[in-house]
Amino acid sequence: MGDKRQLVGEVVSTKMKNTIVVRVNRKFPHKTYKKLITRSKKYYAHDFDESCGIGDTVRIIESKPLSKLKRWRVIGIEKKAVN
User: Fold this and answer.
1) What residue ranges define each of the domains in the chain, with the CATH number in brackets?
2) H runs (alpha helix) in 17-67
3) Quick one: pLDDT band at residue 82, thresholds 50, 70, 90?
4) Which of 14, 52, 64, 75 is the most exposed place for a label (fewest CB within 10 A)?
5) pLDDT tens digits for 12-46?
6) Pair 43, 7: CB distance under 8 Å
C-alpha cells in the first residue's frame, strides 16, 4: 500500500526503558503575514538497544501501536549530540 511516514527530530527525554521522546519541528508561513512560524510536536518512539541520548538527531518511522502512546520506531541516528 502506502509508504510509512518518516520524521527527523531531536531527542528530549530518555528516562523510560526502550522509549525516547522526540521533538519534531515544522515551519510554515503565516496565512496573512507570511512570516515563518515554528511549531513542534512530541512523539514517543521505540529505541530497542537504547543507543540514543538527549540532544541526538534521530530518524523515526511509523509502526504498529507498541503501547498506549508509542506508534513510532527509531531507524537511525542522524547526528550524535556533543556532550
Assistant:
1) 6-79 (2.40.50.140)
2) none
3) confident
4) 64
5) 999 999 999 999 999 999 999 999 999 999 999 99
6) yes
